[in-house]
Specification:
Strand order of the largest sheet: 1-8-7-6-5-4-3-2
Shape: globular
Largest sheet: 8 strands, parallel
Distance between the termini: 7 Å
Oligomer: single chain
Structural class: alpha/beta
Length: 220
């Protein structure tokens, strides 16, 4: 299983974004994570397709789009056109989860499904065979800088067990409150893709990425 760091650009300094992205790539971050918020599914508004498209043209990193938006199937084709490689939708935001996942795959992208902290792991069991990645939110979506919710570890363990029971080598991504101080707990629970925002972009993004990658590589 591959262990991957996905720096969230929501925490980056956009005045020097290109340089900060480059530093993360040079030090081993394979993905870039885009927290897309619509002000409806979550209270905040962030950015959308134009930002992803402009960044896509200047990096080879995997474009990992996390759609915290209501009825996300409406935007799947637009994110494909903008250069997304992975599109993750929230189970709680979809009128028809299966249709949204089908649409993502039809557009040639990897399909991800995300669940909020209050959603039980059992809610995703039926969809595991239809997705490439399951995103466990370890904070409440919509705001950066929150503390990691410890109960998320049990959810990660449960989802990893369900995936193994179905014979699936599922990617499990975790997003929210992850730092160098607690990332091993998340990896030990069964995650293999780590989203980190302020933990990467506060300070030296290159050095922070390198320190995360040293830990992640020790699990391979």
């Amino acid at each position: 299983m591959e262990y991957i760091l996905a720096p969230s650009i929501l925490a980056a300094d956009f005045t020097v974004l290109g340089e900060e992205m480059k530093r993360t790539a040079e030090n081993g971050a394979k993905y870039l994570h885009f927290d897309v918020m619509d002000g409806m599914f979550v209270p905040s508004i962030s950015f959308g397709m134009p930002v992803l498209k402009s960044i896509h043209n200047v990096t080879d990193q995997v474009m990992d789009a996390h759609l915290m938006v209501q009825d996300p199937i409406r935007y799947v084709e637009d994110f494909k056109d903008a250069g997304a490689d992975i599109v993750t939708v929230h189970l709680e935001a979809c009128e028809d989860v299966g249709a949204a996942l089908d649409k993502i795959r039809e557009c040639g992208m990897k399909a991800g499904l995300s669940v909020c902290p209050e959603t039980d792991a059992s809610a995703v069991e039926r969809y595991l065979k239809d997705i490439d990645m399951l995103l466990v939110m370890s904070v409440h979506p919509g705001f950066g800088g929150q503390k990691f919710i410890p109960e998320s570890l049990d959810k990660i363990r449960t989802i990893r067990r369900m995936a193994l029971e179905q014979g699936l080598g599922l990617d499990i991504q975790v997003d929210g409150g992850i730092y160098l101080s607690n990332v091993r707990e998340v990896l030990d629970a069964g995650a293999n893709i780590i989203v980190a925002g302020s933990a990467v972009f506060n300070g030296d993004p290159g050095r922070n990425t390198s320190e995360f990658m040293e830990i992640l590589k020790s699990y391979e």
